[in-house]
Every structure is written in structure tokens, then in C-alpha cells.
Predict the structure.
Amino acid sequence: MLPVSRTTRLSTAAPAVALHGVVKRFGAVVAVDGLELEVPAGLCYGLLGPNGAGKSTTMRILTGQALADAGDIEVLGHLLPAESKLARARMGVCPQEGNLDVDLGVRDVLDVFARLYRVPAPERTAAVDRALALAGLEQRANDRAVTLSGGMQRRLLIARALIHRPEVVLLDEPTVGLDPQIRQELWSLILALRDDGATVLMSTHYIEEAERLADRVAIMSAGRVVAEGSPAELIRAHAGREVVDVHAPVTQLSALHAQARADGLPTRRSGPAITYLHADSLDGRLPAGARRGATLEDVFVRLTGDYVE
Amino acid sequence: MSSVRVGRIEMPALAAVWVREWTVFKYYWRTRTFAAIVEPVITLLAFGFGFGKLVSSIDGVPYIQFVGTGAVATAVLFSAVFSSMFDALYKRRYQRVYDAMLAAPVDVDEIVTGESLFLGTRAGLYGVAPLLVAFIFGLKPEPAMVLVPFIGVLTGIGFAALGMWFAAMVSTYDGFSYVISGVITPLFLVAGTFFPLNRMPQWLQSLAQLNPLYHCVELVRHCAFGLDPAADMAHVGALCAFAVLAWWLAVWRTRAKLIV
């Protein structure tokens, strides 16, 4: 069973990552639109949002690979983009799209990045061995990366990002496209990282992943943060303790939705059903349905999904 | 962790880029070396024997020795420009390893510098092969020939950077058709490798001055058949200017592609 973190860690120190008023346009598309985000040091922080919400662009801004059109960006006290190189030396990055040197052997991949990250020569072999152990790839050290399975390649990507013991780790959709078993292995690895003292900023569009791993979550939609807090706080604030799912033929869902809106009842669409939020405080006013505990998914769809109609 | 400094090209970053190239090379040295050496040697033999039947000597130099010294530049050009342009596009678009490198404390100018130096050095060393073949056909070893690898390396660095510039201007391998047919082939043919330019029309001779390969051909021939210090300093200067210009163009366009 996975260790599940529910404790909200409080930190009074300066945030490890801070973005204020950040705007990034690609031509006519506004990918990041006045982003406000502070990631406290030592937490696992989840950036949750649908595809196109601006998560990956935010990650690329933090590594200096995308230049913001406006706003202030700070990583570990270094101002970006001017001091990006200093920030990058203290950051590890696992990108969404694999970018391994797949033609090289596993050990060579790690050795090259130990050099790129300036691990001093006397410590390099130990750093590579540690990364191999972390990725569970000791037996495959001399095989070419291209021969590894998808899950192993992802573990190698993460181990590569950790070769220099970074203080901040950026994980962009770390488990996208992986089997459930492998996802769970990666989850324990990510929590171990945080417990080791690193600040983890992880983007994901898997709600379960954010709920299990993140001490705090920022929900992004259309380039900005629409809600922020611990998963429990967010659920309490936006969906209440309990919700009611009402299943109905698709043709009737719109009518139910319109009625709820007229009655001032907060709802969210959930496929063939409509979910009434804050059920615990709205007793007697709701149609009959299946009552269950509120989840982060309720919050997520409520806050980001209303535009999909 | 060694200290990182902003806004300058740092040795540890260059060394890391260099070691990455060396590591890749260790996996592929057989194919790369085969292509880089066998092709110019075949060109040399084909022209040397084929044309050699029609033209016995040029300015008192047996034709195969004339081509053998000229083909050094060809070997350097092909090895440097092709490996750098195909590798750079692969690393940017397909394997995306530049993305991974730029997330580390390494900047675009350091990547371009490190890779140009590596590929240029390698090309310069490969460039000696035709000269060795020419020895078999009676070319006399001269002390000044020890300069040939250095000339090759200088030329190679410029052409490796030029290849990176080309790679930064296309989105697919298909895009290289334009530069291969429109730039590289003319450079290769009008450099004085296969025929002496001093019998060509004046306008072509003037145009050849702008061809870096021409300066490389002249320098190598002078090492073999007699130095001309004043002219040779000018040739070295031209090659240096070309390398700096190509490096600058490569950094400028590669940065525009990778940092958006």
C-alpha cells in the first residue's frame, strides 16, 4: 500500500518557486494568462489542470526554455530569466515527452548528465550508481536506453533529473501513459523525494495522482490558477463533505442542469449523471440520487469543466 | 557542485557537451569513420585515375597529387557539415535531447560551441586521409604538412557551425535538399579541388574568394608544394572569419528555435 500524505505541511520559509503576473503568448494564443503561484519549500505541490491549461508552458518558463512576456519569476531566490542558469543548476527536470539519449547505454546517459549538472569528478561514479539504484536499473546499466520498456525509460528520466540532488524537482506529467503498477512505483519514488527534503512541483491531469501525492494543489484553467489549497481544503470549499449523483437519460440532463442553476444549486457534469455538490448542507433541496463523499474530481470538473458545454 | 556563472561560456559546460559527443561517437565511430574516409578516397581515386588520363599534370604537379591535396578540404567539408546538420536536427526535433540539455545549467551558445569544436576537430582529422592516399601515389612528405590537420580542424569548426545553422532553419530532413544542392554542392565544386581556378574567368575567381573551402584548398596545397606566407596568413584569416560568422549564425538561429 502506498504511503498517502494527508498532512498539510506548513512552511514559513521563502517559497522555492514564485510566479507573479506571468503572461506567455504564442502568437494569438495566450498559454499563461496572469499566473500567480507560490510553491512553499519542502512540499509536493500539484499543478492540476486539463490539457491546454498552461501547465507545461509554466514548467518551461521555470527552466528558462520559454520566455515570459510579462511577470516576475523566481526560483530558489534566483530571478528568471536573467539567472536561469543558476536556478537550473539546483533544479531537476523530468519532461512530459521523453528526451533520453536513447542510443546511449543507461550508465552513459546518467554519466553525461552528471557532467552537465556539474557533479564534481570524484563524486560522479557514486552519483551515477545512486541514480541507477533509484531507477532500479542496476541490472540494465550497460544496455542501451532504447531497449528499456516505457516504464523503465520513465524511471531513467526521473533518475537523470535527480543525479545532482536538486533542491527543486519539476515533474511534467510524470506518469502519463504508464501502467497502474508502474505509476504506483513512481508515486512512492516522488514521495520519498519530498520526504528527503526536496521541493517537488508536479503537473498532472490525473486527479487521483494529485490527490494521493500533493500536499497542496493549484488547479489551473486557461492559463491561470482558479483554486489553490490542500486537497482536503479544496474539496471542503468547492464541493462540500458529500455530493449526490443523479443519473438520468442524456436528454433530461440539460433540463436538470438548467433547473439546478435556476435554484442556485452548485452542480457539475459527470458523464451520464449530474452531480449536486455541497449535498450535506443542501438536504431536502436535492433530487433523489446516490450520495457519496466529495472528491477532488468534483472540484476539478466544477472549476475547469463548465466551459465544455 | 562547481560554481555556475551567468552570461559566459563556461569550461565545465563545454566539457560536458564535448563528453556527450565523445560518448555518442564511441557507439558510432565505425560507421562515421568509414563514411568520412572512404567517400573522399573514392572521389580522389575516381578523379585521379579518370581525369588523370586526360590531364597528366597541373602547374607541374601530377594530377592525382593535385586532387589528393585538394580532396582534404572535401573530406573536411562533408564530414563536418553533414554530421552537424543531421545530428543537430535529430537532437532538436526527434530525440529532443537539446531540450534535456537546456534544462541543465548549459546554454545554447555552449552547446553550439562544444559541438562545433568536437565535430570540427573530428572532421579535420578525417581530412588527412586523402593526403595519406596521395602519398601512395608519389606525393612527397613535406615538413609543412604537419599543419594540415590544424587547417582541417579550423575549416571543420566553421563548417560544423554552418551545419548547425542550416539545421536551425529547417523543420524536417527534407528541408536540407535546398542547402545540399544550393549551397554545399557549389562550394564543393568551385573550390579549386578538381581544377585550378586561376584559369577560370575573373568573376568566378572573385566569387571563389568567398568560398571558405577555397582557402582551405589553397592552404593545404601550399603545405605540400611551398608556403606563401603573406597569402597564407590571409587564407587563415578568411577561415577564422568564416568560423566566427558561422558560429554566430548557428547560435542566433538555434536559440530562436529552442528558447521560445
User: Anything to note?
Assistant: Chain B touches chain A through 31 residues (CB under 8 Å).
